[in-house]
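pasting for ref
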Amino acid sequence: MPLAFSKYKEVYQKYCISYQGTSNDHLVQLKLLFPQLQNYFTKVKISLACPRSKLWILDAIPNEELNKDDFLHIKYLKTNLSPPHVIYNLFKESDVPIKPVCEKVIDKTSGICLILPEGMPPTKSFPNLKLLDNLVRQQGFSPLFLGLDSHQTLPISYRPNEQERIGLLDKSDAVMAVESDILFLAAVSGKPTTLLATGLGTELYQKMFLQGKVIKNLSSGA
């Protein structure tokens, strides 16, 4: 049904991006890149919406309270299980160039390195845990594996809940992880980060963090 002109005048510059999925990393990516959207579309008021359970990540309207009549258009996003990456594609469709969000990295060569090898679809888990353990130790860090069950034989494993694991970033000096909220939050804080490239967001990570490292093909080995 067409909008009445009086209503159109209220909403013609109002746009909403509603994320319908459950991926924490997509919400963190959207949060970090949102200022770039706002700066590019200066004449449009852009709002964000997400599931109520994810409001601790993103300052947004709960999807459950979203009223489509309050906006001229709502862009609905969900997690893609195959290319393209949903957040990267949002910027590509909008012709908004993705700029780095952090270009300086703290010079660290020792301390604790959080390792997150477990992925959530479409990101796959990184299979070679022993190799990651060796790499981190060769770099001078002590490994702290997140998300591993107690039967794992690698030293120091821990399975915190969602918000607890974000808090562990304050105690870490570096992060090596598959595409995840922890990886992107660590990178924007200036910590040395390494992406274990098992998902769809490698190009996005590289554009956002020019100093970030990427490991693509380390599936072989003991």
